[in-house]
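Figure caption, in words: inputs first, then the predicted bound structure.
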Amino acid sequence: MDAPYLFLFFSIITLLHLPGFCTAGDTITASQSLRDVNGSTLSSRDGTFEMGFFSPGNSQKRFLGIWYKSIPAKNVVWVANRLNPINDSSGVLMIDDSGKLVILSSKSAVVWSANSTGPARDPVVQLLDTGNLVLRDGNDGDSGTTYLWQSFDYPTDTVLPEMKIGWDLRRGLDRRLTAWKSPDDPSPGDFSWGLELHNYPEAVAWKGNQEYFRSGPWNGLRYSGAPEQRANPLFSFDFVNDEDELYLTNHLKNKSVLTRTILNQSNYAWERYVWSEATLAWKLFTTVPKDYCDKYGLCGAYSNCDVTDLPICQCLPGFSPKSPEKWNSMDWSGGCTRNKPLDCGDGDGFIKFGGLKLPDTTFSWVNRTFDLKECRAKCLRNCSCMAYTHSDISGPGSGCAMWFGDLVDIRHFEEGGQDLYIRMPRSALELKSRHWWEIAVIVIAVIVPASVLLLTCYYIRRWRKKPKEAKIDEGEKEPKNESSKEDLELPLFDLATITDATDNFSFNQKLGEGGFGPVYKGTLPDGRQIAVKRLSAISRQGAREFKNEVKLIAKLQHRNLVKLLGCCEGEEMMLIYEYLPNRSLDAFIFDGTRGKLLDWQNRFNIICGIARGLLYLHQDSRLRIIHRDLKASNVLLDEKMNPKISDFGMARTFGGDQSEGNTNRVVGTYGYMAPEYAIDGLFSVKSDVFSFGILVLEIISGKRNRGLFHSNQNLIGHAWRLYAEGRPLDLIDPCLDGSCILSEVLRCIHLSFLCLQHHPENRPSMASVVVMLGSEGPLPPPKQPGFLIDKNPFEGDSSSSKQELNSVNEITVTLVEAR
Ligand SMILES: *[C@@H]1O[C@H](CO)[C@@H](O)[C@H](O)[C@H]1NC(C)=O
Ligand SMILES: *[C@@H]1O[C@H](CO)[C@@H](O)[C@H](O)[C@H]1NC(C)=O
Ligand SMILES: *[C@@H]1O[C@H](CO)[C@@H](O)[C@H](O)[C@H]1NC(C)=O
Ligand SMILES: *[C@@H]1O[C@H](CO)[C@@H](O)[C@H](O)[C@H]1NC(C)=O
Ligand SMILES: *[C@@H]1O[C@H](CO)[C@@H](O)[C@H](O)[C@H]1NC(C)=O
Ligand SMILES: *[C@@H]1O[C@H](CO)[C@@H](O)[C@H](O)[C@H]1NC(C)=O
Ligand SMILES: *[C@@H]1O[C@H](CO)[C@@H](O)[C@H](O)[C@H]1NC(C)=O
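Bound structure (2-acetamido-2-deoxy-beta-D-glucopyranose present):
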């Protein structure tokens, strides 16, 4: 008899005297079966997972699947016969006579079968605690890790911890995910995810046969395009890339946490959920694509996508749109081309770009032993090599990755991006170096004589004035001296206290993710509630300066500043703040529902409070702090809706650290930056005034400055147009509905235009702002504000010769030895 007939024969025989015995334990042996009609199930030993037949959603069809036993919503993590449903409840799962795992239906048709890698004398099916369904040889014992077959090799739409997504190259097995077609139908939809076998491999999500999202290559720490994969308290990742295997897997740090990642067809998203015991619900932990810039190739070649920018696609410096017409009508997919052709040969050089997601690696090449210099030399020798960088950044940086052909799908990250060295013709490099020299000459010509003069004046003054006065001077200028004797006053919390207070930085205590790291809520033993900010971005070297800074800032006290209670030094530095229950201002004003909770009186109060807080930072405190990142999400609200500015001084701290090269972060949020900062990198208290002006408009209108996305006009432009047309009240947030005192609103709008003047010297100081808010006298007429329309800062007014060297637009452009 031929094999298929033999098989059928045995199947029928088996079916005829089916063991009437159903399993309720945690294994199925050759003499047992799992039968839909009895509703029997198989559980994992620890009771986390359960397997059985089910009908998804509104469907009547039956499938064999695995789900969480204790969660009533029956979140199915794996489906066996997703391609071939059973129409009635006749399904049976069993081991057939050849030792294979099969599902049979009423007519003894084989609905599904598992390809085991070899025969077993004593085959046993077991559902492991990880949710992996395995077929193993019973003689191997429980602890065996060689399986004849395992469901983890055939994932459906869900990744569980310990599951490998990627390739077993020896077996040619590609473990990739495919979304369910719909909640009623587990058959494969058109959304899939897997690792691509490029020289520099990366994960790619496909929508049909269109590339939809790429993770970026694994850089030793994380996927280049997934800064959110950074160290977190819940899980860790392992990426394996050798001759035999290429995969990513994740491990739980606390085995009792439940987490799953699914591909969701309905919104084309990769979503990680974590089960919250507190709320008995799945909490969305991360989702990809996270924003518009994650869409594959949105900006075309040689173009940078930055969500904080408008338009979000910007040609890299030295490039311009291939088709300006399309580009201006917001179709960026054509990308950019070089302004000057490559010389191709020894004339070319490279420009370093920082903070990026590495481009598409379809045409890439990697050598893990090359250093950066060899990498550069090799890239330079091949004219189609367009860029290079370290392939691994887990240490100080090692290995070499190169790109051939156009560089596609580059985006910028505020934090966690990478350096990329992009090939440029000599002419472009020389142009830059001339700029650089020009600036050096200016610096030498201006700064040196100026400092000589200042020093002279200082010594003359010192010499003239009597020591008594000089002492007061020192006290004012060098609070650091003073603080050293007040060392004991520095509120230092020990790590154990903070760990306890935040329930070991438990996920449930997480309040959110700030610019510099996650923020947790905690409760001290004395009952005080605190917010703990873990600063992932601070290096060890920076720690001392950082502590000095914290000592100073901890002394700042004002009703409208969040109180810094102290700090704590663990593996990372942590800042301990007072806890404010009412979240940040942006959660209210930009939300149609919650916006109603803030009437005009509240909002006016908030505007005045922010103004007073800023005035204190600018003038009254000993430190004279420029906030540099004033925005709605940095204004927290206390239980009485009083505003408290947060994150002050941090900008200053990090700014100082930047020279050490350990952060590529440019402080500030583009939508709130003053023109002189965005274009020339100049910052003063008046730039904070500008940000304040934007904040006032946002509070009045309930709209984000960068929110008016398609019109290429921002909120300032919109407000000014309404003002110029004589209908400024049209700006008012509909949420305010009747609560407004129109004269106050008008005064605030008027005042915001004064704050938004293009030239810093035309803007009022915070002191004048506070006075103007509190009085009713006439205000000076405003001129047209700056930044009416968002423009590409790289194309900004050409009179500013420094613009290319400044870190504008949050890409840092640095010159690399131009030969
Ligand atoms: C399971 O169902 C079959 C067919 O209906 C029946 O013969 C058998 O006794 C049932 N077994 C158990 C354990 O209920
Ligand atoms: C279920 O019904 C469909 C359509 O009637 C048929 O194509 C399919 O083969 C049936 N499946 C089984 C397992 O009988
Ligand atoms: C079993 O192997 C065959 C041929 O190699 C393949 O077509 C089929 O998809 C495999 N089935 C499963 C469930 O992996
Ligand atoms: C692990 O998580 C569980 C449930 O969230 C918690 O009860 C337990 O204390 C955690 N264990 C550790 C070592 O953190
Ligand atoms: C997929 O996304 C939709 C829309 O966000 C959501 O309602 C649904 O619950 C998600 N599916 C799963 C399996 O989580
Ligand atoms: C990578 O570089 C090392 C040392 O320079 C060399 O021995 C090796 O052959 C290179 N590998 C490839 C794939 O070129
Ligand atoms: C440059 O690199 C490409 C891609 O690896 C290769 O096809 C081409 O032959 C190389 N050219 C030279 C001159 O080495």
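Residues 1-24, 463-488, 654-666, 790-819 have pLDDT under 50 and may be disordered.
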